[in-house]
Amino acid sequence: MQFKIAIGSDHAGFELKEHLKKHLQARCETVIDCGPRSAEKSDYPDYAKEVSGLVSRGECDRGLLVCGSGIGMCMAANRYRGVRAAVLRDQVDAELARRHNDANVACIGARITAFDMAVLLTDVFLMTQFEGGRHEPRIAKIEL
Question: Which of 41, 55, 69, 87 stands 20 to 30 A from 12 (CA)?
Fold first, then answer.
């Protein structure tokens, strides 16, 4: 399955964002780079807003956000209707965020996560399907 993925970072996540963007393009995914365009100082909420807006409006299937820890991006992204962002630290996080929570935005910490692990987390996040069933009513309770 091919995805249209919005990707963004702050300055701390810029290098990893660029690496993940190339990886996704090599997988033949459609990637919308919401910025930044360099590693100069930038504020994570600005890029979380761009990526989350695209996912919230249904213009992108998934989002990928990278900052120093992943936490700030996750907090900012979850402010948007229909966005279910999760910080991914390991393969279990990536799988369960999708399988049980139907997460649609992955948040990765560039200061914590090695490039090869970030690629693995991204791939697992994209390939794992939502189970539905008993999880659907719980997801519905999240929406305001």
Answer: 55
